[in-house]
Write a structure and sequence with these properties.
The protein has helices spanning about 5-15, 35-40, 55-65, 85-95, 160-180, 195-205, 210-225, 230-255, and strands at about 1-5, 25-30, 45-50, 70-75, 80, 100-110, 110-125, 130, 140, 145-155, 275-279. By secondary structure, the protein is of the alpha/beta class. The longest helix has 28 residues, at about 230-255.
């Protein structure tokens, strides 16, 4: 896991992993709360390192952490593994036919589960994966066959709206910089390529589409079935459209002013003497 001020999640995620994970590593970006304290109390291996971008941070994890387990799993502090998923992962690993494993992640918003799911590659044989070196929305590249398993990850997206908005402000700035500078995406933007390449094409060309914000709302509200969660689903679908609007407006501001926000680096902040620090 990687973290920045995640004390509101650390006990729950580590309770979820206790007795199941062989070892837990946390790369912390100099949190100012009790994130590191809680992780150490649970016996996690913790280091601190400046955050430059998601792809960079995850590749550091894979290259520099002393991982000894034969399989590695990427997890965020706001995620929880269902019991069915834990069992399916163990069975698939013991079968020995996969180099990587994909699974479903279900979104929770305002404390309520939404009928919104993603298929993500989250586990792989140690040493058989690297991440695309992008600022945000990094993608794992696994060397070998990938097997899909049942069960799900619960994604508890932010404890409240204030936290969610602060997080989206950071993400949309990073995405706007990528769009403004035409930086490389997680994969080639191809309309008739893989599912990931189609998403990259949409990201690259979204600003050119007519009625784009209304269409995106309808896609999330009706297409993804968020309507089944009532008002919470409506709010989530509306906010997803607002996120894309924020990206477009920030990118337009850069074009008008000629100023690009400086990249955010988290750290060095309050270094914890109990753990090792990396530049």
């Amino acid at each position: 896991m990687i973290s920045l001020n995640e004390q509101h999640n650390m006990e729950a995620v580590l309770d979820n992993l206790q007795g199941w994970a062989q070892e837990v590593f946390l790369v912390d970006s100099y949190s100012s709360d009790r994130t590191v304290d809680i992780a150490l109390q649970y016996g996690a291996h913790v280091v601190q390192r400046r955050f430059r971008g998601f792809g960079d941070q995850w590749n550091f994890c894979l290259e520099k952490l002393p991982i000894t387990s034969p399989w590695t799993m990427k997890l965020d502090p706001d995620e929880r593994l269902s019991d069915d998923l834990k069992s399916a992962l163990v069975e698939t690993i013991e079968a020995g036919k996969a180099a990587g494993i994909s699974m479903e992640r279900r979104l929770w918003f305002m404390g309520k589960p939404l009928p919104v799911r993603q298929t993500l590659v989250r586990a792989w044989r140690t040493g058989r994966c690297r991440f695309t070196d992008v600022a945000v929305n990094e993608h794992p590249i696994v060397d070998g066959p990938i097997v899909h398993v049942p069960g799900e990850i619960e994604h508890h997206d932010s404890p409240d709206m204030e936290h969610w908005l602060e997080k989206q402000n950071r993400y949309t700035t990073a995405e706007a910089i990528i769009a403004h500078q035409q930086s490389p995406l997680a994969d080639s933007p191809l309309l008739f390529g893989t599912a990931l390449q189609r998403r990259m094409w949409l990201k690259r060309n979204f600003a050119r589409l007519p009625l784009r914000f209304s269409l995106l709302f309808l896609y999330n509200w009706l297409g993804k079935g968020a309507w089944r969660a009532g008002w919470v689903g409506y709010a989530w679908a509306r906010l997803r459209s607002d996120v894309m609007r924020m990206i477009e407006y920030k990118c337009r501001e850069m074009e008008i002013t000629g100023r690009v926000p400086r990249a955010r680096y988290y750290g060095p902040g309050r270094a914890d003497p109990r753990v090792k620090q990396f530049d």
